[in-house]
Write a structure and sequence with these properties.
globular; mainly alpha
């Protein structure tokens, strides 16, 4: 089995066997949406705000356990470049914590039109990838702090604002029968930009903390 396959298998087992990692952001998302659903119709703003907060909640578990248990010391000895390992971890984390949120969103917005539902689901799918990559950077920066959860939230939310605005703009455009291609392209560009620097920056921060 290749080094990357071993890393993915271990991360997948950790994420799926510990239901706290997978269920906490999902339940948090449903709770926030339900609170707004009691008093008002669920719209794109509610969905995006709940999804963004669910990402923030899930980020705290991305690297901390591996850092505290010394797993990163072992990974540094692997022939596989650490940025590839980090990217694998981010993808596994996204699949187990953010993908369930995306899947359930069309059912939550059953009263909306097909175009609105499709646009929100697509924008969430693209946007959550960028949010996970940016959140990984902040999670790495706060990994050595004993009470880094609050600082992680404070640092993450401003970074998430551009993606939130693009997601809301695409949903508004879809609701008013306007073109959404420009917003989707900008979101994809943000994902590519985050992919270009996030794994490298996270690797650098972790190496510094391991010294």
């Amino acid at each position: 089995m290749s080094s990357l396959a071993r890393v993915w298998k271990r991360d997948w087992q950790v994420q799926t066997q510990n239901f706290t990692y997978t269920l906490t952001p999902f339940i948090f998302y449903l709770t926030v949406v339900s609170i707004f659903a009691v008093s008002d119709k669920i719209n794109a703003g509610v969905v995006w705000a709940a999804a963004l907060l669910a990402v923030v909640v899930s980020m705290q578990s991305m690297f901390r356990d591996d850092y505290n248990s010394g797993v990163f010391s072992y990974l540094l000895l692997e022939p596989l470049p650490l940025p590839i390992v980090i990217l694998s971890k981010v993808i596994c984390h996204w699949v187990t914590t953010q993908l369930p949120v995306i899947i359930v969103t069309p059912f939550i917005m059953a009263d909306a039109s097909i175009v609105e539902i499709s646009t929100i689901t697509l924008s969430l799918c693209i946007g959550s990838i960028a949010l996970s990559l940016l959140g990984a950077v902040v999670a790495a920066l706060t990994i050595a702090l004993p009470q880094g959860g609050l600082l992680l939230s404070i640092l993450s939310i401003p970074l998430y604002m551009p993606m939130l605005m693009l997601g809301l703009s695409s949903s508004y455009a879809a609701a008013n029968s306007l073109p959404i291609a420009s917003y989707i392209c900008l979101m994809l560009a943000c994902v590519l930009l985050a992919l270009s620097f996030a794994p490298l920056l996270v690797s650098l921060v972790i190496k510094v903390n391991m010294q």
